Amino acid sequence: AGGAGTAGGGGGGDDVITVGFAQTGSESGWRAANTESMKEAFSEENGFDLVFNAADNKQEAQIAAVRNFINQGVDAIVIAPITVDGWDDVLTEAKDAGIPVILEDRTVSASDDLYASWVGLDFEQEGKTAGEWVKENFDGKGANLVVLEGTTGSSAALDRATGFDAAIEGTDITVMDSQTGDFTRDGGKKVMEGYLQKYGSDIDVLFAHNDDMGLGALDAIKAAGLVPGQDIQIVTIDAVKDGMTALANGEFNFIVECNPLLGEQAAELVKKVLAGEEVEKATIVEDQSFTQEQAKEVLDSRPY
Ligand code: GYE
């Protein structure tokens, strides 16, 4: 955390753009890569003065940070919204103050005239791709599946669940349990321990909404004397370095990518909006997916 530069305060005729960035927290490898990408793009060199805040995945703290940015009179605000709901008031306040808001990563349920633009990923498609892989490999086998969900109320968790459920609908796969592990390793490990106590070796497949929860679950699975990737097959989303390493090693079975490198596009949007240019309301960044073989091939060339 930290990294707030407050040089000059925008006065004295310089044209430095002061941007307040309200990040979710630091829950995962994806988040670390996203924060780095944002800090790089919103650098001094690129003409920005970045005021960075990470809210430890607490919605109230994130809203308070945005309110702070409004009071400070920043030129623009960027938010990676923790949850979809709860944004109407503070986004209205930003609008009334004439401060444009750009969303990155997750979406909100608030009306889209309360923000200038959003750049992120198609989470529903990510869930669907994961579900299609499960369907292809397990339909007709009477398989039992458990789910580790991301942060409750986040668009990433909601939309991934929607896409996944749609993909496995009509199959004979049983979803035994589905609980939140909050997108963290620790959360994934704890919830998986509970699943293993309850269902033991009846579990055939694990779908984790991100790599980190899957990585946490690996510890629980090994501690239970089972072999991850074999006794329990594992599908995750993100494709960060540690996840891809587990996939290449045979401990994960399939990963759907979620690209965290959104900084440049977010910075471009901020510049355009402040210059009064027209921008798209939504920009979706494309994702790939990886099997174990593909992970081996690309592992060394992955940038995060
Ligand atoms: O998948 C997870 C992170 O919103 C896409 O948040 C993001 C998700 C990502 O914590 O690792």
UniProtKB/TrEMBL annotation:
The keyword ATP-binding does not apply. PANTHER family: D-ALLOSE-BINDING PERIPLASMIC PROTEIN-RELATED (PTHR46847), GALACTOFURANOSE-BINDING PROTEIN YTFQ (PTHR46847:SF3). It is found in: Cell envelope. Pfam families: Peripla_BP_4. This is ABC transporter substrate-binding protein. It comes from the Bacteria. Its main location: other. One of its GO terms (molecular function) is carbohydrate binding. Keywords: Signal. Gene3D superfamilies: 3.40.50.2300. It comes from Microbacterium lushaniae.
